[in-house]
Specification:
41% helix; globular; disordered N terminus; alpha/beta; 7 strands; single chain; seven-stranded mixed sheet
Length: 252
């Protein structure tokens, strides 16, 4: 186990020592929060409501937003490592993260972009978006503590506004947002995905009913994607954009 006692050393082995200590701490806090009875009740309510077909929870409800304001809801360590390795293996230079929270997974992505940039001599960037102001600010502080502020930009606000000016081709997308918002977010980004770009989406099995619209897009080859569900906790969907293999829409 790692120095923290919770994170297996191989999960964070590719990260520099100081960053390992920071992400270990953040993973521990996130895990502790998600194990609390009250947090589990919120998740159970969300899934039960989706299963009964009574509609999604209103995540803008003030009391719920207040409760979640200090919750990391971070990506699991093994999933973070996978995203880091995918970014390194593909030489990703432009990554978009939808749902940055406290910047835990953003650190992994920014570390990969930094190494890719130093290898190629280019200047890559992770563009993260977070709707909760206090989380966005903490994400910036965590990235600065990791020495990665130069390689990441955290945009604060609704992703439909913060990401609407994306122009340059995207190499990798991490979708870690509430399920009903995943499809609108991907629809916004699809025109900017380069050929063979990857899209990673969390909890695709645990919340499959809420991800129905999202899955209809990425699992239909006619839409220009090849997609597979990876057997991580809650399910992790890995989709590859295949430009030129999408079927043109029928004339209206």
């Amino acid at each position: 186990m790692s120095r923290s006692g919770l994170i297996p050393p191989d999960v964070i082995a590719e990260l520099p020592g100081p960053i390992q200590e920071l992400v270990s701490k953040l993973h521990e806090v996130s895990e502790r929060q998600m194990r609390s009875p009250r947090f589990r009740l919120h998740i159970l309510q969300r899934r039960l409501r989706a299963w009964l077909g009574t509609g999604p929870i209103d995540w803008d409800e003030p009391r719920l937003r207040g409760y979640l304001r200090d919750k990391l809801v971070g990506l699991d360590p093994e999933k973070c490592r996978l995203c880091h390795l995918l970014a390194r293996a593909t030489g990703a230079m432009r990554i978009v993260e939808v749902g940055t929270s406290f910047g835990l997974s953003t650190i992994y992505l920014a570390a990969a972009v930094r190494d890719n940039s130093l290898t190629t001599g280019g200047q890559g960037v992770v563009i993260g978006t977070e709707n909760e102001p206090s989380k966005a600010e903490q994400a910036r502080l965590n990235l600065a503590d990791a020495g990665l502020a130069e390689w990441a930009e955290v945009r604060e606000g609704d992703f439909r506004i913060t990401l609407r000016d994306i122009r340059e081709p995207i190499d990798l997308v991490l979708m870690d947002i509430w399920a009903p918002l995943a499809r609108p977010a991907l629809d916004l980004l699809v025109p900017h995905l380069r050929d063979r770009a990857m899209v990673v989406c969390d909890n695709i099995v645990a919340a499959r009913r809420e991800y129905r619209d999202y899955l209809e897009l990425v699992r239909n080859p006619a839409n220009g994607f090849a997609s597979v569900t990876l057997p991580f906790k809650g399910g992790l969907e890995l989709s590859v954009r295949l430009i030129g293999e999408a079927t043109p829409p029928e004339p209206g």
